[in-house]
Design goal:
Order of helices and strands: EEHHEHHEEH
Strand content: 15-25%
Number of helices: 5
InterPro entries: ArsR-like_HTH (IPR011991), HTH_ArsR_DNA-bd_dom (IPR001845), Metal_resp_trans_reg (IPR051011), WH-like_DNA-bd_sf (IPR036388), WH_DNA-bd_sf (IPR036390)
Keywords: DNA-binding, Transcription, Transcription regulation
CATH superfamily: Winged helix-like DNA-binding domain superfamily/Winged helix DNA-binding domain
Distance between the termini: 29 Å
Domain HTH arsR-type: 6-95
Oligomer: single chain
Organism: Psychrilyobacter piezotolerans
Protein name: ArsR family transcriptional regulator
Helix content: 55-70%
Largest sheet: 3 strands, antiparallel
Number of strands: 5
Structural class: alpha+beta
CATH topology: Arc Repressor Mutant, subunit A
Amino acid sequence: MELFRGGKMTIERATLLLKMMSNPIRLGILRELTLRDEICVGNLEDLLNVSQSSASQHLAHLRNSGIVSSRKNGKKVCYKVSEESIKDILKALNI
């Protein structure tokens, strides 16, 4: 699937981003990630009041979609937004 054409996001990529953002937990995760450089799963548990397994499952969807990236920090896994347009979308939504 072509993600960008002529410097613009394709309809397919935009659809995927919006689909990933349509879940309240994933939207909350993305909001928290845009407020920080990166965040570890344990911190998301506290910030969003969700279980670690739930946060991890949603982060896996976001990572598999290329919206976030991860890195290991000892035993912790930390995430950051890798799709810069997410920040613009959340800003437009005033979230």
